[in-house]
Design brief:
heterotrimer; A alpha/beta (about 280); B alpha+beta (about 160); C alpha+beta (about 400); A: alpha/beta; Rossmann fold; 2 domains; 7-stranded mixed beta sheet; 6-stranded antiparallel barrel; 15 strands; about 30% strand; B: alpha+beta; 4-stranded antiparallel beta sheet; 4 helices
Chain lengths: ~280, ~160, ~400
């Protein structure tokens, strides 16, 4: 039973912040690279890392970008002590990283199909690598449809990417919507699920990637179903209280699943029944 | 491209997808083509609501005017959508402002004409009300989801 | 490696042999009115001549009319506290210029344990935690370092009033998972132990102790001890198809009924030998130069357990009791390939209001009449006398 020294799964590795971008009033995207001597990780779209603010604590944050040379991008919203500390990081500073964890989007399994990305709020962050993967391998996929919702225009993250995709790329359809706006907003106003009904894609040969608040994912799934996308071809990213990320601590259980190990990405046929049991 | 009649345009529109050709013929008699340049007010809260618009291209922002605040857009409508149900009721007045944000092409159906045909042909009236009820339910559902303030502080990333 | 018989003196030598091999010997002792595990100096530290009386919400030690060393069932503690400690420093870091931080201090030094008096249900519980901490893609180094403990099992002769290991097929006889297994035989002047050997290091240790080979009457007497125990289980639970049957009653009104009694105090999860939830907290020294990450036991009965930014997913006691019970008996199977319950009965005994998992399951699975379910034992309702359980072999 007693074997070689096992590495400590709770030990963060030091990464250096090389770029910081303020997306909105409380959302920051930062790019990090391993410090010298730290092996770079092979992460996949949809996976997450545990980000550690020295002495403050740790939070699970999905990858919002994967760059060559082990360079990683995370997008964090300030909602608590730890995430607030992370949004205050400056270029050159150090952040602790454990990961990558979890089962990702597995975008490559959608090759040959239309890709429909439905994102809400900060839920757009883990989906950006899906769009980037699809664009980098454009010929492998059918239509690429990106539908993004936010509360207000000024709370829309990755607006530069959206603009670039919408303007510079002619074989990707980008639609954005907000819950309410002023007259200077040129996008849609309404919920992101309404965009699903209007978007152009072949429902029978599409794979949908959905991430956002749980309610939004439930409604988006219903809209996709109404369009004719089977539940088994709708992928959702679940959120629970991930603490250890290695399936030891019990916090991120959802019914028979341990989200950090079995997810965070699930197909809707498996996840949806669990999301509709209250208090689970 | 040959000139398409109001009837053709209605028949192609999502809103009338499940209506019979006979009913579409009847409705077409109430319609005319309209084009609104960008940033044109189609409707103004409190004005008499004489028309019901079947949108073909462009985008319309439906908003509420609030004193001392920027106008608030609560929904946008585009191709495949319809604008305005105030004409259904008497007296018909617009409840919201509607402003085009792009050049918008639509078919304007005359409310008085529509009501008269629905009164004369209850089967047509029923079909039309069914379509409206469907749209209303969709918009009510969307409004409820908006009310839930989905993107409140519940996600860190 | 056939079974042998040692006497009480032989047992003392066995403990001494463990100590001479630098094992830290941990065994049952009597402390604060209960059986508690502790490091012992010798056999005289064991709770000789004591037994226990356990019921829902009650526990009491009594004197036996013999000098049996293991004449009681399990107490509130389990071996979990030695393998998966209540508090573990998992990482310490020193802030360093330029590189940010480096690991500080040596890694965890695990004690070399010998556990004496490990019951069959506890071996099963350790097996369940093995799957959690060692069975996945990430092994827990602290658990693994302690898991090599020498295990001296004791076959159960005195099941407690809340025991139902026979229902869960985890006891009372341990068949594997030990280095040595003792069956204590006390009759008149006879005080001996029939010893089964479970490993080569067990065999090696036993070689240092005077013994005689066990004959068929010794083996028969040993078998009779556990046979008798399985017939006297205080509780039973119909475990067949439990995962599926419980998954079908998630909206049963009986959850509300239990919630009206449950205090959400976390006792059941702390005494449970398989509950593994933990949280990690971060602290720094006053200068902010050294950071420590400490893992402590957590419980799904706390509000913070299911906290997501903005609130708890399981906000009511109903939600949390349901999570605990369905995890234990239902979803655990999908998660780790085994039930999370070994039938030790601790959660029943140590519940301050006497909530009984076997009774609650029975109520949840009782056939429903039209409308609201009618089975609902009230708080403090007398527990139905347990029928003798079938003992699967």
């Amino acid at each position: 039973m007693l074997a070689e020294r096992v590495s400590e799964p709770m030990e963060p590795q030091p990464y250096r912040v090389i770029e910081v971008r303020h997306e909105t009033a409380d959302v920051v995207t930062f790019t990090i690279e391993p410090t010298p001597g730290i092996a770079s990780m092979d992460a996949l779209p949809g996976q997450f890392n545990m980000l550690w603010a020295f002495g403050v604590g740790e939070v699970p944050i999905s990858l919002s970008g994967l760059r060559p040379g082990g360079v990683l991008v995370h997008t964090v919203r300030s909602v608590g002590t730890v995430s607030e500390a992370l949004t205050r990081l400056h270029s050159g500073e150090i952040v602790g990283v454990r990961g990558p964890f979890g089962r990702g989007w597995e975008v490559e399994t959608a090759e040959g199909d239309d890709i429909v990305v439905v994102a809400g709020g900060i839920g757009f962050a883990p989906l950006r690598p899906v769009v980037e993967h699809a664009l980098a391998n454009r010929s492998a996929f059918g239509r690429v449809v990106v539908l993004v919702g936010a509360r207000r225009p000024e709370e829309m993250i990755f607006d530069e990417d959206l603009l670039r995709w919408a303007v510079a790329t002619d074989d990707i359809a980008v639609e954005v919507t907000v819950d309410a706006a002023g007259h200077d907003w040129s996008g849609h106003v309404g919920v992101v699920t309404e965009l699903v009904g209007r978007a152009r894609f072949d429902a029978r040969h599409a794979v949908a990637f959905v991430c956002g608040p749980e309610v939004m994912m439930r409604f988006a799934t219903r809209s996709l179903q109404e369009r004719g996308v089977p539940l088994g071809r709708i992928r959702l990213s679940a959120e629970r209280n991930m603490h250890c990320a290695v399936a030891h601590c019990g916090h991120c259980q959802l019914g028979e699943y341990i989200i950090c190990r079995d997810g965070p990405v699930f197909d809707a046929a498996r996840l949806l029944p669990l999301l509709t049991v209250r208090g689970r | 491209m040959t000139e398409r009649t109001i009837r053709d345009l209605l028949a192609e529109h999502e809103f009338f997808a499940e209506m019979s050709p006979e009913h579409i013929d009847l409705l077409a008699g109430c319609g005319r083509n309209v084009v609104f340049p960008a940033n044109t007010a189609i409707a103004h809260e409190g004005d008499p609501a004489e028309h019901f618009y079947v949108l073909r291209t462009g985008r319309v922002a439906v908003g509420i005017h609030m004193p001392q605040r920027e106008p608030l857009v609560v929904a946008t409508l585009g191709p495949g959508d319809v604008l305005g149900w105030s004409w259904l009721f008497s007296p018909p007045y617009w409840r919201f402002d509607a402003l085009t944000t792009q050049e918008t092409r639509a078919i304007a159906l005359d409310g008085v004409c529509l009501r008269a045909k629905c009164d004369a042909d209850p089967a047509l009236g029923y079909r039309l009300m069914q379509r409206f009820a469907h749209i209303l339910v969709q918009r009510l559902e969307a409004t409820r989801v908006q009310l839930a303030d989905l993107y409140g502080k519940t996600h860190a990333g | 490696m056939g079974s042998v018989v040692i006497d009480r003196r032989g047992f003392e030598l066995l403990i001494a042999a463990l100590q001479s091999r630098d094992y830290k010997v941990v065994a049952p002792t009597a402390r604060d009115g209960a059986i508690a595990y502790d490091e012992i100096g010798g056999v005289s530290d064991l709770p000789a001549g004591l037994t226990d009386e356990q019921e829902a919400g009650s526990y009491r030690l009594w004197c036996r009319d013999d000098d049996a060393l293991f004449g009681y069932a399990v107490g509130p503690q389990s071996w979990k506290r030695y393998l998966f400690e209540p508090k573990t420093v998992v990482f310490r870091a020193q802030r360093v210029e330029r590189v940010g931080f480096v690991r500080a201090g040596p890694s965890d030094a695990a004690p070399r344990y010998a556990f004496v008096g490990v019951r069959s249900c506890e071996i099963a519980a350790i097996g369940i935690q093995d799957r959690v901490f060692l069975g996945g893609s990430h092994a827990d180094p602290h658990y693994r370092a302690r898991r090599d403990a020498f295990i001296v099992a004791v076959q159960c002769g005195e099941p407690g009033g809340t025991c139902f290991c026979a229902s869960m097929r985890t006891g009372p006889r341990a068949e594997a998972g030990f280095d040595l297994a003792l069956t204590e035989i006390v009759a008149g002047d006879r005080h001996e132990f029939v010893v089964e050997v479970g490993s080569s290091r067990g065999d090696d240790l036993l070689g240092q102790v005077p013994s005689r080979p066990a004959d068929s009457s010794d083996l028969g007497a040993a078998r009779a001890v556990t046979d008798s125990a399985s017939e006297r289980m205080g509780r039973r639970l119909d475990a067949d198809g439990l995962p599926e049957r419980l998954a079908a009653v998630l909206e049963h009104s009986h959850w509300d009924q239990v919630a009206s009694r449950c205090l959400g105090c976390t006792s059941c999860t702390l005494v449970c030998p398989t509950c593994f939830c933990s949280r990690v907290s971060d602290t720094t020294d006053l200068k902010g130069l050294e950071a420590t990450r400490t893992r402590t036991w957590d419980s799904c009965f706390t509000l913070g357990h299911s906290y997501l930014h903005g609130g708890s997913v399981r906000s009511t006691i109903r939600d949390r009791y349901r999570q605990w019970l369905t995890h234990k008996l239902s979803t655990w199977v999908a998660q780790f390939g085994t039930s999370g319950c070994v039938g030790c009965g601790r959660c029943i005994t140590w519940c301050p209001v006497g909530i009984d998992i076997t009774v609650e399951v029975q109520a949840l699975l009782a056939p429903l009449g039209p409308g609201r379910p009618t089975v609902s034992p009230g708080a403090g309702a007398p527990v139905e006398p347990a029928a003798p359980a079938e003992v699967p072999r």
